Amino acid sequence: MTDKEIDLFLKNALDEDMPEGDITTDNIIDPNEISYAEFIAKENGVISGINYCKRTFDLIGGNVDFKIFKQDGEKVSKGDLIATIKGNTRTILKGERTSLNLLQYMSGIATTTNNYYHICVEKHNYLIQERLLQECVSLLKKLLKMVVE
To answer: Among 79, 95, 117, 123, which residue carries the largest CB count within 10 Å?
Structure first.
């Protein structure tokens, strides 16, 4: 997917989550308030979508410092620090649900794929990783099409 397609997908996801904006955050949270949060693995797995997670906050306002400690494809154990975010509280609150949903969904797929890969390797049946990658990209494009239409 191109950067433009990714941005469109993320903008649509944010619009679906906040069709009228985030009225509660905008009316309760001081516009100058700064917050800090950590993305911590809830269970063992494989990270996927961390850069899309970061991009979600860029599209909302970008006034945050998003530090990535675990890259896509890296294995994590329960309790591992994946990323941190510090910045405007409104931006963090507006993007957290969409970014976390995306990170959890994509990491779930990566973890499941990794588990099946290892099962197949143990049985001497090898998966062609490039084919899997092409199928995943194809699926994401189909999802993007559904969101856009």
So the answer is: 95
